[in-house]
Amino acid sequence: MSRRLRILVVEDEEAIRTGLIDVLVFHGYDVDSADTGPLGLDKALTGKFDLVLLDIMLPGMDGYEICNRIRAEDRNQPIIMLTAKTSDEEIVQGLKLGADDYVPKPFSIQQLVLRIEAVLRRSQAGQQQARTLNIGDVEVDTENLSGTNGAEDITFTKREIEVLGYLAQNSERPVSREELLSKVWGYARGLDIETRTVDIHIAKLRRKIEVDPREPVRLITVRGAGYRLVTGN
Ligand code: CA
Questions:
Q1: Which of 87, 159, 163, 179 has the smallest number of CB atoms closer than 10 Å to its CB?
Q2: pLDDT tens digit string along 103-116?
């Protein structure tokens, strides 16, 4: 893997935050940070991070709430909670909200880096499995940007594969155009960006993966909510 993995550090204590940033940069990660809850949530939702390191006690919004809100939009976002709270109940609460791991403070840097590597390994392995996407009779090779629709060979652009991949990861629910613009295109939320960009890509994808693009059954429109990929047969 040549791409540098991106980590978001959400921590209000400056000494810990800068310490974490230094260590993570030293280990070869790309690091961004936030020192309040709302800023952390905003960055987590609009940036594309391989991992979010999330403190619990934060000004503005606590780590549980942030974790919850991230999960509501992206159940695959790897999250490690950092906290000084050590009662079992609080650990369970953190994990119930879907944190992938929990590291109590004070932590040894070495211990933390090992836990980070473990979580990243698991999520990267999960992404590898998604190399082949099956959408009904359509098989998509996401690495080679190619696929087959029955007997027909198809090719995709990188962006089309990213859109399909994101929809496939969230196939149990519709995904809004705004979310696609933020998560796939990387545009900040609230910017006045033409959502037609998304529609054009969806139309192109339908011509490739549907039997009849005018009557989509695989990449469907959910009125008022967005698009949903139907991955079953
Ligand atoms: Ca704190």
A1: 87
A2: 888 888 888 999 99
